[in-house]
C-alpha cells in the first residue's frame, strides 16, 4: 500500500524550495523575515518592501538557474497591479478584485442543467472561490454532497459542518443551514 500524490504536490514543493519558503527549506536558504513568499503550484509572489522583494527576487532567479528550472514567463518586478491566482491586486488603490480572465471563465460556463458531476464540481469551486473573494455567502442554505465535502474540503474551505438532525444516512447529503465556522465538528 502506498501514497498517491498529484503532480501538483511535487511542483508546489519544488517551487517552494526555489522560492525559499521557510517551512520547506533550511533557515540558511530561507527568505529573509521581511519578505513574504506566496507559492501556488508554479507561481511565486514575493511581497515586502520594494528593495527587499527585488533582492530576494534576484536570489530566487539564481536558485532557479542553479537547478536548471525555467522562470519568468510573467515576471513583474515592483508591480503596482498584478494578477495572482485569479485575483487582481491593485496596490495603488489598495483593492482586490476578480481578474478579467477569471470573470470571463465564469461567464463562459454552460447552463447548469446540462453539466456533468465533474463539471458541476468545477462550477461550484469557482463560485465558492468568487464568494470568498467578495466576502459573501452564495445562498442561505446549501445542499452539499457529503462525499464531495469529505474528498474536497478545499472547495468549501471547511465551512460546512454536520448537524445530527440534518444528516441523511443513506443518501449522504447534508443540509447545512447558516454555515458557521465556529461550530466545526
How would you describe what is shown here?
- The two termini are about 30 Å apart.
- The strands form 3 sheets. The chain has a 3-stranded antiparallel beta sheet. Strands 1-2 form a two-stranded antiparallel ribbon. A two-stranded antiparallel sheet has the order 6-7.
- It has helices at about 5-20, 50-65, 100-105, 115-135, 145-150, 155; strands spanning about 35-40, 45, 80-85, 85-90, 95-100, 140-145, 175.
- It folds into 2 domains: about 5-80; about 110-185, no CATH class.
- Residues about 140-145 and about 160-185 have low confidence and may be disordered.
- Strand 4 and strand 5 form a beta hairpin.
- It is about 35% helix and about 15% strand.
- It contains 6 helices and 7 strands; from the N terminus they run αββαβββααβααβ.
- The protein has about 180 residues and is of the alpha+beta class.
Chart the SSEs and their pairings:
Elements: H1 7-19, E1 36-40, E2 43-47, H2 50-66, E3 81-84, E4 87-90, E5 95-98, H3 100-107, H4 117-134, E6 141-145, H5 146-151, H6 153-156, E7 173-177
Antiparallel strand pairs: 1-2, 3-4, 4-5, 6-7
List the total number of helices: 6
Radius of gyration: 20 Å
pLDDT < 50 stretches: 141-147, 159-185
Instruction: State the total count of DSSP E strands.
Output: 7
Order of helices and strands: HEEHEEEHHEHHE
Domains (count): 2
Strand order of the largest sheet: 3-4-5
Largest sheet: 3 strands, antiparallel
Provide mean pLDDT, rounded: 66
- Helix content bin: 25-40%
Give the DSSP E fraction (strand runs of 2 or more residues).
Answer: 15-25%
- Shape, per Cα inertia axes: globular
Keywords: Kinase, Transferase
Protein name: Putative target of rapamycin (TOR) kinase 1
GO molecular function: kinase activity
Organism: Trypanosoma cruzi
Amino acid at each position: 500500500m502506498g501514497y498517491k500524490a498529484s503532480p501538483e504536490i511535487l511542483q508546489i514543493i519544488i517551487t517552494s524550495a526555489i522560492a525559499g519558503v521557510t517551512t520547506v527549506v533550511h533557515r540558511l536558504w530561507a527568505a529573509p523575515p521581511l519578505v513574504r513568499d506566496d507559492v501556488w503550484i508554479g507561481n511565486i509572489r514575493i511581497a515586502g518592501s520594494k528593495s527587499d522583494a527585488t533582492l530576494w527576487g534576484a536570489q530566487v532567479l539564481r536558485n532557479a538557474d542553479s537547478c536548471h528550472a525555467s522562470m519568468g514567463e510573467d515576471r513583474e518586478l515592483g508591480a503596482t497591479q498584478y494578477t495572482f491566482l485569479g485575483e487582481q491586486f491593485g496596490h495603488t488603490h489598495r483593492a482586490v478584485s476578480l481578474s478579467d480572465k477569471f470573470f470571463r471563465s465564469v461567464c463562459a460556463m454552460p447552463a447548469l442543467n446540462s453539466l456533468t458531476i465533474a463539471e458541476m464540481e468545477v462550477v461550484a469551486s469557482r463560485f465558492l472561490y468568487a464568494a470568498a473573494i467578495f466576502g459573501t455567502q452564495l445562498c442561505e442554505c446549501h445542499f452539499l454532497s457529503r462525499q464531495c465535502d469529505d474528498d474536497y474540503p478545499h472547495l468549501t474551505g471547511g465551512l460546512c459542518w454536520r448537524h445530527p438532525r440534518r444528516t441523511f444516512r443513506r443518501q449522504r447529503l447534508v443540509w447545512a443551514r447558516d454555515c458557521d465556522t465556529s461550530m466545526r465538528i
